[in-house]
Amino acid sequence: MPFLRSLTIKSKLFAFSLALLFLAPPAMARGPVATHHMISAANPYAARAGLEMLRKGGSAVDAAIATQMVLTLVEPESSGIGGGAFLLIYDPRHNKVTSFDGRETAPASATPGMFLDDEGNPRPHMDVIPGGLSVGVPGVVAMLELAHKRYGKLKWATLFQPAIALAERGFPVTKKIAADLRENPEMARMPDIRRYLFHKDGTPLRQGEILKNPELAQTLRLIARGGAKAFYSGPVAAAIIGKVQHAPVNRGGMTLADLAHYRAVERPPVCGPYRIYRLCSMGPPSSGGIAVLQILGMLQRFPASQLQPDTLSDVHLVTQAERLAFADRAQYVADPDAIHVPVKGLLDPNYLAQRALLIDPHKDMGTAAPGTLPTTQPPYAPQRTRQLPGTSHLSVVDDSGEVVSMTTTVEYIFGSETMANGFFLNNELTDFSFEPTRDGKPVANAPGPGKRPMSAMSPAIVFGSDGKFKIAAGSAGGPLIITDVASALNAMLDGNVTPQQAASLPRFANLNSATILEKGTPLNALAPQLTAMGHNVVERDLESGLHIIERVPGGYIGGADPRRAGVALGD
Questions:
Q1: Rounded to whole angstroms, how far apart are CA atoms 317 and 194?
Q2: For residues 501 and 503, what is the distance between their CA atoms, to the nearest angstrom?
Q3: What are phi and psi of 71, to 5 degrees?
Q4: Looking at residues 35-43, what average pLDDT do you find?
Q5: pLDDT of 363-373, one tens digit each?
């Protein structure tokens, strides 16, 4: 492996572990097979809570709820009941795929120019995140209750017990929490962060220290007894509003009425073909499903031999399809309850075939323009894409074959950096475009009362040529969720790699700007060749969180992203 000579010691170890994984015998590489049920999630405590529900005879939805409650405690930097989520479910009894939208909504006080300064210019993104202005009405609790009413088997209150017990007992601070605090010391200026996650001497909590959260335990007890109503009214709701309206910076205008009026929505998924497979994902207000389907749809033009993991041709072709998908995403996608999103046109096979012809196998195309759809569209202006990490994903299969692929978030690290009754509040409104207009045209994803900001979350379920469930997948990572999910599915479907191999692969992406290669990985050896093809290559540390389950003969195998502490567990 000549490329190892150019890598650091840490990178060599990473590359060597990947090489071992790919050179291992098939049985070793794929891991043990679970014959009854499986869950893959970003934290062992959370995954074990989900597995406990599966062992009790619970549904995939039951397991997802228990897992989310524990994630609220152990991965507060990424997700929690103060945020939102999208849940995709396959119901084998009716051979049906549906989705549940728990995306946050803007309060009635939101305006298109809410993130502009006094001179009408967009405020710096990081300045707006902390405080109350960025907080959207949380949606995950309402969404999970709606899904439980349709697909739950165990009692609602049972699903909260692992999280309540762990919040009282305490858990060891994870490597990720400790690193996020160490690398972002400015967060200590926010009182809630300082109180909960820093010592009295001003130093952040260290990995392995025991962190308890009795406030969260009490909140979860209220929700366990009273359902979602106990979250959207009463003392929990009052605490949320108090924190938003009286934040130390960037006070917001959310009211109790905003919380009381929140509704989760069941929506049809977006589905489409990729070679012999059928893929379903989340539709608007997420852009993720459309973008992933577009990327894979355009790649169908090229043979699988050119789309093998870690090859120059794969990185080049996938990034070109990503450019085209992100150009359409910026132009057309927003809250479907506020504007018309041309989903059918964006996924039309003929449209994707025409877009795919723009991909030159030998040269980077540069900045892509959005496509022209045959249907008449309002003259929206494209919005800019921001790259910020965040979010968590879990995949579950239960004893009946019910499948859940759920992506959940508080947006940025620790959301708005404010807490109410033991949980962090999201900063999801910063997913809106800060520019309500560009070049005299409105931006589709501008803020507005009751609107849901566009998301990149891409929970996915793939079906084989036999029509049976094959893969459940999703990731964390802001807009890079789209590229991570597309690349993982590409690697599994074209490269025949296992879930764990797909989760461990080096990351790359193009958000219609530079081509990003994950720093310190074997992909960096491709940089000179990509540069010669016209790519503007940058190397960065990339944070992802792929969690994947695949149906194989005899049961299921799983994969968990090594960049996080997650695991895949099953029986």
A1: 46
A2: 5
A3: -60, -35
A4: 98
A5: 999 999 999 98
**DSSP labels for 252-274?**
----HHHHHT---EEEPPEEEEE
Q: Which of 262, 225, 211 is nearest to 103 (CA)?
A: 262
Dihedrals φ, ψ of 368, to 5°? -85, 150
Contact 68, 59 (CB under 8 A): no
Task: Check: CB of residue 49 under 8 Å from CB of residue 66.
Answer: yes
Q: Single out the catalytic residue among 98, 391, 418, 521.
A: 391
pLDDT tier, 374 (very low <50, low <70, confident <90, very high otherwise) = confident
Is 158 annotated as catalytic? no
Cβ partners under 8 Å of residue 275, min gap 6: 300, 304, 493, 494
Cα three-residue angle 391-291-295, rounded to 5 degrees: 120
pLDDT at 438: 86
Q: How far apart are CA 31 and CA 559, in angstroms?
A: 9
- 322 residue type, one letter: E
Longest dimension (CA), the chain: 63
Nearest Cα residue to 283 out of 243, 318, 232, 334: 334
Residues with Cβ within 8 Å of residue 183, at least 6 apart in sequence: none
Q: Enumerate the H helices of 342-479 as residue ranges.
A: 343-346, 349-356
- Do residues 92 and 401 make contact, with C-beta atoms less than 8 angstroms apart? yes
Per-residue model confidence (pLDDT) at position 4: 29
237 vs 103, 108, 255, 470, CA distance in Å?
A: 17, 16, 9, 41
**Mean pLDDT taken over the chain:** 92
Q: What is the pLDDT of residue 3?
A: 28
Helix (H), strand (E) at residue 1: none
Cα end-to-end distance, the chain, whole Å:
38
